[in-house]
Amino acid sequence: MEGSNVLLVEDNADHLVLTKATLREHVGIHLHVVSDGQQAIDYLHGIGAFADRAEHPLPDAVILDIHMPRLSGLGVLQWMKERGLVPRLPVLVWTGVLTENEKARARALGAWGVIEKPANFAILGPVVRDMLRGRRGRRAADAS
User: Fold this and answer.
1) Which residues have CB under 8 Å from 62's CB, separation 6+?
2) 72: left (phi > 0), else alpha (psi -120 to 50), else beta?
3) C-alpha dihedral, 37 to 69 to 113 to 90, nearest 10°
4) pTM for the whole thing?
5) Residue 88 burial (10 A CB sphere; 0-12, 13-18, 19+)
6) What are the φ/ψ torsions at residue 95 (nearest 5 degrees)?
7) Candidate ranges 7-11, 129-133, 138-142; pick with highest mean pLDDT
8) For a tag on the chain, would you pick the N or C end, based on fewer CB atoms within 10 A?
């Protein structure tokens, strides 16, 4: 877990600052940040600006916002599932208010868990630690 590479996909600057601070306080990880769904796919695929895997390593987990420009987080999850990345690569959906349909779709696409922000910043660190340790028993899906 210590030193794990985590890809954070977040387009909101305020949420990015809070998320980084929360993770820094609770989890010793290498955080790689992109700001939209298409950048997330490019990063995971290792193309374009993310082709150098020494600088942009394949992550051990993904923290994914759903409502983003260019391509939604659900679109990213769909892409990951089609390529067999999910559930091998755990994805925590960390986003604003979701409809029940969006929550169900995220889970159906293989999300490790779903947490609504900003109310749940306090639980983000422990949930990410559990995800990186491979604990499927304590799913963040119950936190929304």
Assistant:
1) 6, 7, 8, 9, 40, 44, 80, 89, 90, 91, 92
2) beta
3) 10
4) 0.86
5) exposed
6) -150, 175
7) 7-11
8) N
For residues 65 and 33, what is the distance between their CA atoms, to the nearest angstrom? 12
Assigned token pair, 64: 């994914």
Half-sphere exposure of 35 (CA within 13 A, CB side): 7
Task: Please tell me which residue, 49 or 96, carries the higher pLDDT value.
Answer: 49
Q: Kindly report the average pLDDT of the chain as a whole number.
A: 86
Cα(first)–Cα(last) distance of the chain, in Å? Answer: 24
Find the Cα–Cα–Cα–Cα dihedral 42, 46, 52, 57, rounded to 10°: 100
Structure tokens at 19: 């998320």
Judge if the upstream peptide bond of residue 87 is cis by omega within 30 degrees of 0: yes
